[in-house]
Amino acid sequence: MNLSVENLSKVFINDGNVHTVLSGVNFTVQEGQFVTLLGPSGCGKTTLLTIIAGFQSATEGSVLLNGQQVSTPGPDRGFVFQNYALFPWMTVRENILYPMKRRKMPRQQREQRLQELLTMAQLEGKEGLYPQQLSGGMKQRTAFIRALAGSPEVLLMDEPLGAVDFQMRQILQEELESIWLKDQTTVLMVTHDVDEAIYLSDRVIVMSAQQGNILEDLAIKLHRPRNRNGEKYIKYKVHLMNLLKKALHKEPEAPGKELELCLA
Ligand SMILES: Nc1ncnc2c1ncn2[C@@H]1O[C@H](COP(=O)(O)OP(=O)(O)OP(=O)(O)O)[C@@H](O)[C@H]1O
């Protein structure tokens, strides 16, 4: 698996006003990596992720998955939404089976994968419940394993923990990590939470509010599970917080500078 975003731009025209949200964005994600797009509100993270998912098109540039251009949604890219987007009329079991049925996976294989995923997410015994009968954490875990059930090449997650409070968020990050470590699917996640980015990611790509310019592509070289109070962890945190402050700086960049900042 190799995902690459090449020279991607997105322009919206609202009431005749041109709004360039992304301009000349370049990066790649390698097989098995957990990569996070971190940036201030409105910098274009969701726009970028939804273009990769194929929910909307780029104005210029391309998204390549294993060298093939993708421009429409497909089962090779799973998506986890902030509000979980579970089907409320389906049980946990039916929600998780849904992507496998769409992929026409044989029944026996489906049942086996279902049990595997339920165990991974510690949801055994909950398969008959409907989403509204689940806690926030259970909904999040169900959404995560439902996205994994279709065996996507890459899992795209848009602020998957955005709807939960601070303390619960840390617990869910640990749960997400433990499921991900067992499954090892390539992940590209959007967040504006520095701590979440450092705790979960192999790489953090920092975007600026200025046309989604990439300010830094930072490898997080810490053993898992990570100690949030560790010296090196805190150094990463201070560095990224400072970078985010810079990311908010909205003055126009010198022409051509964006290209220097793009780290492929
Ligand atoms: N369909 C659209 N039409 C016009 N403008 C849009 C559209 N979608 C997004 N935008 C604009 O693009 C910019 C980037 O939005 P986007 O949601 O990608 O940012 P974000 O970084 O994900 O923000 P947040 O962290 O707050 O979710 C915003 O200024 C937004 O108003």
From TrEMBL:
SMART domains given in the database record: AAA
Keywords on record: ATP-binding, Hydrolase, Nucleotide-binding, Transport
GO MF entries: ATP binding; ATP hydrolysis activity
UniProt cross-references to InterPro entries, sorted A to Z: AAA+_ATPase, ABC_transporter-like_ATP-bd, ABC_transporter_ATP-bind, P-loop_NTPase
Cross-referenced SUPFAM superfamilies: P-loop containing nucleoside triphosphate hydrolases (SSF52540)
Residue span, ABC transporter domain: 3-234
EC number(s) stated in the UniProt entry for this protein: 3.6.3.-
CDD domains linked to this entry: ABC_NrtD_SsuB_transporters
NCBIfam families noted in UniProt: ABC_ATP_SaoA
Protein name: Bicarbonate transport ATP-binding protein CmpD
Protein species of origin: Sporotomaculum syntrophicum
